[in-house]
Amino acid sequence: MHQPGPTRRTLLRAAGAGLLAYLSPGTALSDPGERVLGEGRSRYNHVRVTERGSVRTMYFVGDDGTQYIETRVDRAYPASLDLDVFRTMMAGFLLAPRPTSALILGLGGGAIANYLHARVAGLELDAVDIDPEVVRLAKAHFDVPREHPRYRCHIADARLFLERAPADRRWDMIFLDAFRGVTVPYHLKTAEFHAAVLARLSPQGVVVANLHNATRMYPHDRATFAAVYPARYAFLSEAGNQTTLVAAADPQRLGPYAVRDNARAAQPSFDFDLLGLAARLYLRRDWPADTPVLRDDFRPDALDTAVLRHNETCIHGCRYQR
To answer: Rounded mean pLDDT of 213-222?
Structure first.
């Protein structure tokens, strides 16, 4: 989902590993119309929040200065989704139109969580992000509430959060949007991870994930989803370069007409055309049948160490290619 922004060379380098560094709010970038509102570094990310007119953006910044859009909102339309990918991820409602609870793995600037909180009455939300700087900046600049009984933020690794949730905890909808810099850590892509996700879905629940469909990892992601989830549905983004996968716990597959009926049922909560999104459902197989499934071999007693290793080395030395 992360789209490259203009290259920026005006980086403030951290003094050492694990330290945070900031640019002062209002600092100008090379684009004179864009200014920095806040910035932070953690052991996981270099995060920058900028504003140009009414548009506010959270970037993850690579070592070469390239900015990748993590979240973008138009504050003139605060209850809308500005990015195509986020709108496409609402395809989860085409399979589960009336969820009462949602888990979002990867808070970012809170665009998905804020949108659902504002539009789906009574929805219980849990948002998880490993990076305390992402959560801090989301609360400071993107209207993520500091405290709310139905909108809870957790600072944790997504895999560990799932594995250690109470045994009876289930959600109707789980969004997978956790990035370390510009890639997804390997331990959040494997069949073992998805088995943990499936175990946390309610009987009619769905999991929603966005995939870049032109990357080397795309066939492996599709093969891994197919190996774990009883039913899968694919929706193209408006631009066509991204695929949102919706996987269901219920093995009974819904046909296109049932998907459209669900679009009509969910439409009152949304400000864009869900029937148009339903029309971008596609059924063709777009990955080779012999593609290997992604797996990990973490022992339960070594999970913490394995998770830490993958979170810290996802940009440099990844065991997979994007």
So the answer is: 93
44 and 108, same domain (yes or no): no
Final residue in a domain of this structure, among 24, 54, 74: 74
Rounded CA-CA distance 308/298 in Å is 12
Q: What are phi and psi of 256, to 5 degrees?
A: -55, -35
CA dist., res. 158 & res. 195, Å (int): 13
Do 63 and 142 share a domain, yes or no? Answer: no
Same domain, 30 and 135: no
Number of domains in the chain: 2
CA distances, 130 to each of 4, 10, 79, 214 (Å): 22, 26, 26, 27
Structure tokens at 175: 């969004």
Question: How many whole angstroms separate alpha carbon 41 and alpha carbon 63?
Answer: 12
* Strand order through the sheet with 55-61: 3-7, 66-74, 55-61, 46-52, 35-41, 27-28
The pLDDT score that the predictor gives to residue 210 is 92
pLDDT digits (tens, 9 = 90+) for 21-38: 233 344 444 566 899 999
pLDDT tens digits for range 246-265:
999 999 999 999 999 999 99
My answer on whether 142 and 90 are in the same domain is yes
Question: Sheet of 171-176: strands edge to edge?
Answer: 151-155, 124-129, 101-105, 171-176, 201-212, 242-248, 231-236, 281-282
| DSSP collapsed to 3 states, 61-128 | ECCCCEEEEEEEEECCCCCCCCCHHHHHHCCHHHHCCCCCEEEEECCCCCHHHHHHHHHCCCCEEEEE
Nearest Cα neighbor of 307 from 114, 163, 175 is: 163
Residues 58 and 88 in one domain: no
Claim to verify: residue 30 and residue 120 sit in the same structural domain: no
CA-to-CA distance for 174 and 188, rounded, in angstroms? 13
Q: Which of 74, 94, 112 is the last residue of a domain?
A: 74
pTM for the model: 0.85
Domain containing 56: what range? 3-74
